[in-house]
Specification:
The protein has 15 helices and 20 strands. The radius of gyration is 29 Å and the shape is flat. Helices cover about 35% and strands about 25% of the residues. The chain folds into 4 domains: about 120 residues, Schlafen, AAA domain (Methyltransferase, Cobalt-precorrin-4 Transmethylase, Domain 2, 2-Layer Sandwich); about 70 residues, no CATH class; about 160 residues, Heat Shock Protein 90 (2-Layer Sandwich); about 70 residues, Orthogonal Bundle (Arc Repressor Mutant, subunit A), CATH 1.10.10. It starts with 7 loop residues before the first strand and ends in a 6-residue tail after the last strand. By secondary structure, it is of the alpha+beta class.
Length: about 450
């Protein structure tokens, strides 16, 4: 027996307000409404079914402006009507209201959600909408020069671009339409895009715990400036470098690979839903960096889709195209795999990705097996040394611990058991065959 779902709705009788449900199906993926069935899908019969068979198509056509198939079915339990609604390419409204079927519920679209829906029906994206009364002269010349040099260096732009006028450049980037600059052009090249787009900036915070913010910064300016300023700020103020020497040369190794963080930042900027008015947020903790942007995955995508090889479907295609031409990003949906590969090559855990209704998170975990972090959590000298010394071997036998630190079996078991409790090691086997492994995520 059928049950209510994204594409199926049961109603025991007809009310004219159900035209809203038909509107919702037409604006989504289509669907079927059954009249004369209860919520469980059981036939309960329908009064005046033959009259409704004639009235409903006319009401749908007159009020919604669309055509639906209305079919009458007769059973031993009574008659029921089937209303089959196709998905419509254009937006359908019910007396000026736009309804949409989501899951097994109907929503009335308003505000930013309605704007995005109408743009989608028109085959447009938010960043491709023209903005009147903003001139090319208001754009930041220095950013154009930066863009040109990066594009030439990455071989995504020809050297002739250096002598090209700004209007021609913007037209080639598809950022100019009927004499008006698009929203993407303003975000990319205007000195103060927040005059036109609320929340078009980045917040960075250093957290001791989730509710203990130690200090914070905000990064403003156009998107190219935000990328450069954010990377500079993160790696001079928020992320520490481990110092070592090769001969007489000082070497700085950061806790997180710069290229991976940059790629995640570029993803957040390219895929952010700028109509939501919330800034991109970067939260830095002792053991992790979290980057959040408001936005949604493409329809029918999951995090698993994102982690597999996938096509490139940027939320803001005009912004993504400019980033590609500048050499900032690839164009084949390889950003996520690139981030994971860079972290693995640096000996760090692969980043975690989360998708919730309001946005997308990427979480970078620090290699916790470093002296600074281990001292902070209160390990004794033996435990600290063991985690660093044995890490490359992937595990520790109790006997190895006894031999290295000249302690009793009991002391070794006690030290190692504490590391298991702290989830720094995993215990495998019993007694003499016991081995303490480094969790796979940190190897």
């Amino acid at each position: 027996m059928l049950s209510e779902s994204q594409n199926i709705e049961f109603k025991s009788s007809w009310r004219d307000e159900y035209l809203k449900w038909i509107c919702g199906f037409a604006n989504a993926g289509g669907g079927t409404i059954f009249l004369g069935k209860d919520d469980a899908g059981k036939v309960v019969g329908l009064i005046d079914a033959k009259r409704l068979l004639e009235e409903i198509p006319n009401k749908v056509k007159d009020i919604l402006g669309i055509i639906v198939d209305v079919n009458l079915h007769e059973t031993t339990d009574g008659e029921f009507i089937e209303i089959v609604v196709e998905a419509y390419p254009n937006a359908v409204n019910y007396k000026g209201q736009y309804h949409y079927r989501s899951g097994s519920t109907k929503q009335e679209l308003k505000g930013a959600a309605l704007d995005k829906f109408l743009l989608k029906k028109q085959g447009r994206r938010w960043d491709g909408v023209p903005v009147p009364k903003v001139t090319v002269k208001e754009m930041k010349q220095e950013t154009f020069e930066f863009f040109k040099k990066r594009g030439i260096k990455s071989k995504r732009l020809a050297e002739e671009i250096l002598t090209e006028d700004i209007e021609h450049l913007l037209e080639n980037l598809n950022l100019y339409e009927n004499g008006n600059l698009k929203r993407a052009a303003i975000l990319l090249f205007h000195p103060d895009p927040e005059k036109f787009v609320t929340g078009a900036y980045i917040k960075i915070g250093n957290f001791e715990t989730d509710d203990d913010l130690r200090f914070q910064d905000e990064v403003h300016g156009n998107l190219f400036e935000q990328v450069e300023k954010t990377m500079d700020l993160l790696f001079t103020k928020y992320v520490k470098a481990l110092i070592s020497y090769e001969d007489i040369h000082r070497v700085e190794t950061y806790e997180y690979p710069k290229d991976a963080i940059r790629e995640a930042l570029l993803n957040a900027i390219s895929h952010k839903d700028y109509s939501g008015a919330a800034p991109i947020q970067i939260s830095v903790y002792k053991d992790k960096v979290m980057i959040w942007n408001e936005g949604k995955l493409p329809e029918n995508w999951t995090i698993e889709t994102l982690l597999e090889k996938h096509s490139s479907l940027p939320y803001n295609p005009d912004i993504a195209n400019a980033f590609f031409r500048s050499g900032y990003v690839e164009s084949w949906g390889r950003g996520i795999s690139k981030i994971s590969r860079i972290c693995s090559e640096a000996g760090l855990p692969k980043p975690l990705f989360y998708y919730k209704s309001s946005g997308i998170w990427v979480v970078f975990k620090k290699d916790i097996y470093n002296k600074e972090f281990l001292v902070d959590i209160g390990l004794n000298d033996r435990q600290l040394d063991a985690l660093i010394f044995f890490k490359s071997k992937g595990g520790i036998f109790s006997s190895e611990y006894v031999d290295r630190y000249k302690v009793s079996d009991r002391t070794a078991r006690y030290d190692l058991a504490e590391l298991v409790i702290r989830k720094l090691l995993l215990k495998i086997g019993d007694k003499k065959s016991t081995k303490y492994l480094f969790p796979i995520n940190f190897r």
